[in-house]
User: Which sequence fits this backbone?
């Protein structure tokens, strides 16, 4: 017997556009970043081309970030980012989700997270995306902007402790985002079919199984 | 008297030796020099050349007194002046330009090494081609106020449009012009190095030793007892010694790419031959980053340097000891490289491991 499924519109068009532009932009930033940092080991393009591309893509993604920010600020969909205010509830849900990824998924347990329009992130995603989108991504953009023109932003660079501090933060975040961009597609393949979440990020609709009666 | 006169050469050599051991201090001018300045310190004295051009003969006494040549005195460079006939007949020159070209020979008496380097430079070539604005010695260094200046200060005197020209193709062009000596790229055959100069944020100038109060070399030597150059730990100690606990605006080292031997700055090449390849500097082990010095500005404006090991540029401690110097690639931190490799391996291994376990347990999931 197959469970009844509903189509739920979880990814509005601006979010899908932001997501794919951000995804390909981050890949471009990582590749050009690797070329810039490891010019003695990597030969994808010239250093100057890599710097130029890195700067342009960076500015596009800064603009794109504001598409995401303004969309959520001016729509009720911001509820998907509302934090769970009860720490007990949040950590219990996070633990269940960790248990599912680390154990339950291997033996076929159902995903403890039930997706809905205003509840599209599980507890782990909710916490991770709040940190990523409100702290790490802006910090990466700010440090990138400062490094783009160190003379123009000399005062801000001094405020943050000097160019080496700014660059070290930028590189540490680059390292984090490199790992993220590798793990993220794999986690996205853990839907009810391997391509379900990918299709949803194209069409906007997720196929969601109805919870069992009384469940 | 000619330029080649052996007596002039001997006198010049003796004077140069005296100069090397004499620190220019205020009031260094002799009575003879002051006698010259009695007339040449006045406004309005000029010399007229054949083409009707005139050259002001006024010398700013204070500027000369502060110049590196002050200990030599007037007569060292003006040995052709015969006081018995002065200000009577002297050798006639057709123009101010001809006079300046002839006077370059006076500089050569002491600065033979610079002349050798200069001989094949773009400036020397332009002079030989008859270019009327190609600089002679005084064009870059001045005549009576020769003081230590950065190459940038010297070059932009004529090449004022250089920044705009660099901004067309060079990212962070203004910063490059501040931290890379012009000659580092425009004298491509010269050897480069990183000089980490102490900067004082309180005064917004380079930190300088006061006359008669040397401390930098003594402090650096005490922290580098084996004399093999400061390592990362010793540099950290140096920074702490310079800025005792509680210092409000700590002095910091700022890096510049300079020439290992400044005389090589005379080997300026044609613009087309200048270094444009970014990886000349922005790669691990690039030539400029192999030689490193830490320095403070001396009382006369010239740097007082102490050698350092090049590992200090990429050490993890550099975040504290060198927060204001970083060059992509050239000062790449190995700690961050290791973290990047770990992130790459984790990003591949975690999904691959998880996928493998799922595949191994696939039969468990297919059971009703």
Assistant:
């Amino acid at each position: 017997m197959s469970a009844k499924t509903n189509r739920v519109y979880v990814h509005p068009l601006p979010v899908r556009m932001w997501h794919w532009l951000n995804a390909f932009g981050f890949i471009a930033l990582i590749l050009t970043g690797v070329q810039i940092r490891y010019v003695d080991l990597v030969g994808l393009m010239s250093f100057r081309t890599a710097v130029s591309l890195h700067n342009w893509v960076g500015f596009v993604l800064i603009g794109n970030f504001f598409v995401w920010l303004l969309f959520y600020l001016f729509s009720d969909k911001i509820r998907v980012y509302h934090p769970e205010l009860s720490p007990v509830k949040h950590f219990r849900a996070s633990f269940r989700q960790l248990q599912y990824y680390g154990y339950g998924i291997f033996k076929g347990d159902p995903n403890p997270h039930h997706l809905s329009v205003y509840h599209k992130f599980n507890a782990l995603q909710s916490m991770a995306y709040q940190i990523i989108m409100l702290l790490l991504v802006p910090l990466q953009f700010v440090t990138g902007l400062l490094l783009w023109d160190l003379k123009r932003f000399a005062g801000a660079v001094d405020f943050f402790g000097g160019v080496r501090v700014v660059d070290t933060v930028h590189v540490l975040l680059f390292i984090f985002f490199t790992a993220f961009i590798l793990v993220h597609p794999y986690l996205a393949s853990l839907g009810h079919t391997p391509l379900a979440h990918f299709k949803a990020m194209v069409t906007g609709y997720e196929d969601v199984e109805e919870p069992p009666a009384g469940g | 008297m000619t330029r080649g006169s052996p007596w002039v050469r001997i006198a010049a050599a003796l004077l140069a030796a005296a100069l090397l051991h004499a620190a220019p201090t205020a009031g260094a001018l002799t009575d003879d020099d002051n006698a010259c300045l009695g007339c040449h310190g006045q406004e309005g004295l000029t010399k007229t050349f054949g083409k009707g051009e005139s050259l002001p003969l006024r010398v700013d006494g204070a500027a000369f007194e502060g110049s590196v040549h002050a200990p030599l005195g007037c007569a060292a460079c003006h040995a052709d002046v015969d006081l018995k006939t002065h200000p009577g007949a002297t050798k006639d020159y057709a123009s101010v330009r001809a006079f300046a070209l002839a006077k370059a020979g006076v500089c050569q008496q002491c600065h033979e090494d610079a002349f050798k380097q200069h001989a094949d430079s773009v400036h020397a070539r332009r002079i030989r081609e008859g270019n009327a604005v190609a600089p002679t010695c005084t064009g870059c260094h001045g005549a009576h106020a020769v003081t230590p200046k950065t190459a940038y200060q010297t070059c932009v005197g004529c090449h004022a449009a250089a920044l705009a020209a660099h901004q067309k193709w060079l990212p962070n062009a203004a910063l490059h012009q501040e931290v890379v000596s012009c000659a580092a790229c425009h004298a491509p055959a010269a050897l480069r190095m990183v000089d980490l100069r102490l900067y004082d944020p309180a005064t917004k100038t380079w930190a300088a030793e006061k006359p008669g109060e040397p401390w930098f070399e003594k402090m650096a030597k005490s922290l580098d007892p084996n004399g093999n150059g400061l390592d990362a730990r010793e540099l950290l100690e140096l920074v702490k010694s310079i800025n005792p606990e509680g210092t409000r605006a700590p002095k910091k080292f700022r890096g510049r790419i300079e020439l290992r031997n400044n005389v090589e700055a005379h080997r300026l090449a044609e613009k087309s031959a200048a270094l444009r390849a970014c990886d000349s500097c922005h790669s691990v082990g690039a030539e400029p980053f192999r030689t490193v010095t830490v320095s403070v500005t001396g009382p006369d404006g010239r740097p007082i340097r102490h050698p350092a090991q090049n590992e200090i540029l990429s050490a993890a401690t550099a975040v504290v000891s060198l927060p204001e110097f970083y060059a992509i690639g050239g000062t790449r931190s190995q700690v961050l490289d290791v973290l990047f490799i770990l992130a790459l391996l984790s990003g591949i291994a975690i999904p691959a491991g998880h996928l493998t376990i799922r595949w191994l347990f696939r039969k468990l999931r297919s059971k009703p």
